[in-house]
Description:
This protein is of the alpha+beta class. It has helices at 2-20, 39-61, 64-78, 104-110, 169-190, 195-202; strands at residues 80-86, 91-94, 97-99, 118-122, 125-133, 150-158. It contains six helices and six strands; from the N terminus they run H-H-H-E-E-E-H-E-E-E-H-H. The strands form two sheets. Strands 1-6-5-4 form a four-stranded antiparallel beta sheet, sandwiched between helices.
Amino acid sequence: xxxxxxxxxxxxxxxxxxxxxxxxxxxxxxxxxxxxxxxxxxxxxxxxxxxxxxxxxxxxxxxxxxxxxxxxxxxxxxxxxxxxxxxxxxxxxxxxxxxxxxxxxxxxxxxxxxxxxxxxxxxxxxxxxxxxxxxxxxxxxxxxxxxxxxxxxxxxxxxxxxxxxxxxxxxxxxxxxxxxxxxxxxxxxxxxxxxxxxxxxxx
Length: 203
């Protein structure tokens, strides 16, 4: 009987925690980013990917400076900080204009064994680095790049709305979890651990 009570108390406590998580209380989306990546952040990454593809398309099909004008317009309109880097990690403020010193974090992403988008929460903002892999049309201008054919990178930094995490995704997850815990609690309440023992002695 004691075992049954302990199980029931534990499951009930988990149910209360699960119910609480349906509402907009901590931890928020940014707080659990390292453990669970919300679909909201995947949408932000997709947005960055579209901007990157547009940048590369404009750069290869029109005058290169138009691509930087495009990034500036998008950044101002959507409050996104966008920076272009060459394959050595230098910031490229405009075509042919390199400034500052090589960015170590950008170089680390570009020089990894499998260069791919890297995203993280930094100082309350969402930050991403997208390495630019050389395509066929890139070879007309980029005659030199590293062995992995990474010709540069774009970095993005923007505010994010953690409350969007509660709009649907988090609610659905914890409603389902609460229902499962409720079913488990019901099964524990009906469970009689001493029944089999009694039947054994009755025989």
